[in-house]
Amino acid sequence: MAQPSESSANSAACEGYDDIKWDQIEFGIVPTDFMYIMKCSEGEKFCDGSIIPYGKIELSPSAGILNYGQGLFEGLKAYRTEDGRIVLFRPEENAQRMKIGAERMCMPSPTINQFVNAVKQTVVSNKRWVPSVGQGSLYIRPLLMGTGSVLGLTPTTEYTFLIFTTPVVKSYHKGPLNLVVKDGLYRAVSGCGGTGGIKSITNYSPAYKAANEAKAEGFSDVLYLDSATGKFIEEVSTCNIFLVKGNAISTPKAEGTILPGITRKSIIDIAVDLGYQVEERAIPVEELLQADEVFCTGTAVVVNPVFSVTYNNTKAKYKTGSGTVSQKMYETLVGIQTGHIDDTKGWTVQI
Ligand code: COI
Fold this sequence. Notes:
One of its GO terms (biological process) is amino acid biosynthetic process. This protein has about 350 residues and is α+β, with helices and mostly antiparallel strands.
């Protein structure tokens, strides 16, 4: 298949676009046309990546990623704007977060420019998969992984940076969330052993068991408490959390155990601009139960209202729907991402 040229990236009417069955796309993996791959050896720098057809990759059974989970991932999206452009949202923030994570996981990382350029090339190659404006986005998944062989517990000798994409049309969650908080259930530990503040691959599958149990009990997901005291809220397995009380919007401070979400950071700035009093601080779970509104943020979930939080024998219910702060946050964020609202902060990067 011929690789589309960069100059035609902005055309909304892409060749092949009409062949895609957009209404059948759920939130999940839809294989797109191309992916990006770049390798480097231990002690060297990444250089010379390339776009290749999307497909399986070969891994040694002794690869560091398979045996000891030496890996990171990122998540960002490409959007079509109302005037037909394709834009990324703050990709250099993902690049920076991957760099910080790579340092923690003893891996080399692509430079910020390499990361952003690789993302652009991947999106250009897959531009027919970027949904039309207002219909969704192209989810971009950069991976950084130890692909060299290893037996002893030590960083491996070869690293691979790979980016694949998948279109997302439907929302991650089907509506407002009903979360559960359980004593003794933690996502991340504080101190030097913890990796809660980076997007380490190993942070995510350990949450499956708790989430599956919560779903079996009729909840959407688990909201985790801090492991040091068991008193303060941290995050949901897929997203950060905010509460609204009057004119104040609060979110747990992203310090070590909490992922510093890029949507989280953007919502904080938007809320300040809209005149809310914004606080990043420790939030006791009891305070959450007294909030007017609660919402979650993340690349995948965007801004998702929370309908209820259950903790011990209390089920707190919150405002959702029209006129809520979370709706205003959603509309402002998505408005900037799709060019409906002026991007005065320079958050969008045109491809
Ligand atoms: C994202 O929001 O992009 C994430 O990485 C969360 C993921 C678990 C779906």
